[in-house]
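Good morning N.,

You mentioned wanting to compare the apo and holo forms, so I went ahead and generated the holo version with 2-hydroxyethylsulfonic acid. This is what I fed in:
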Amino acid sequence: MNRIRGRTAVVTGATAGIGEACARALAEAGVRPVLVGRRTDRLEALAAELRPATGAEALWHTLDVRDRAGVEAFARRLKEDGVRVDILINNAGLARGLDLLHEGSHRDWDEMIDTNIKGVLNMTRALLPAMVARDEGHVVNVGSIAGHATYPRGNVYCATKHAVRALTESANLDLVDTGVRMSSIDPGLVETEFSLVRFRGDRERAGRSYDGVDALQPEDVAEAVMYVLNAPPRVNVLNMVVLPTVQRSPYLISRGRPASADAES
Ligand code: NDP
Ligand code: 8X3
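and this is what came out, ligand included:
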């Protein structure tokens, strides 16, 4: 059953990885995606691709989720254009470096905190009030296994993802008398541009994160997001941890197993 056809979903970080896969899955389900990210060329290309492929009109907006005034202007613009946002997927996020805390860079810390925590807050503060006023809507935050456990040198990134989990839980308390749902999807290792960004373009080092690992693909996470969004209105998935079968904790990964086949029937 498709319960979300005809809805509109804002997806942050739609220019790559998990966000892009979510946008594709939503469009395929007949949901109009509003693509958000900083790389205009990618937004434009994805919107153009989704329109004829799925029939879903795809909107896009170049936006840095750290820019609070920009986020507020974006929300105002949607309202003026008569775009009702039913779903918000707070996916934009990043890690920078893998430094010991006492050697860490303030610049990296600011970027992670401003994007992963304040970016989620900026978007949520701008779009959630209209959902509350309508008494329906769904916010899905992309957290991480790093929001459940820490790993050596993960310090500030792990702290940001713990914050996302706490915000999801806490916001649910605030939303108890409404029909608005908030969920977090917390993946383990996903093969995206994440490590390339973390290691500032060092392909060799980034590639090592996935060496011999049958990692999650962005589509696997999008499938989980779609399940959560499509659940009956009485069902609120608070939190879903999705790990590769070869990963049972942030640092317990079985490397070298053959990649699994994905049989479709
Ligand atoms: P990618 O690097 O492939 O994608 C990240 C996306 O976030 C890009 O579209 C990027 O777009 C966007 N983004 C980053 N900063 C900003 C910003 N300031 N404003 C707007 N958009 C921004 O990584 P993933 O797809 O893997 O990451 C998506 C989410 O999943 C993140 O929150 C990450 O923490 C989380 N995650 C990832 C895991 C993994 O192993 N890959 C595991 C668990 C969680 P642009 O640069 O165009 O702005
Ligand atoms: C990304 C997965 O394990 O690198 O959130 O933190 S991990």
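The two ends are 18 Å apart (CA to CA).

Happy to go through it together on a call whenever suits you.

Best,
F.
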